[in-house]
Amino acid sequence: MRPVGGPPVLVTGATGRIGSAVVDLLTGAGVPVRALVRRAESAATLPADVEVVTGDLTAPGSLDAALHGVGAVFLVWTAPPQTAPAVVDRLAAHARPVVYLSAPHRTPHPFFQQPNPMAALHAGNERLIADAGLDATIVRPGMFASNALSWWAAAIRGDGVVRWPYGAAETAPVDDRDVAEVVARILREGGHVGGDYVLTGPESLTQAAQVRIVGDALGRRLTYEEMTPDEFRNAVPEAARPAVDMLLAAWNAATGRPAYVTSTVADLLGRPTRTFRQWATDHAPAFTGS
Question: Is the pLDDT reported for residue 191 higher than 90?
Answer without folding.
Answer: no
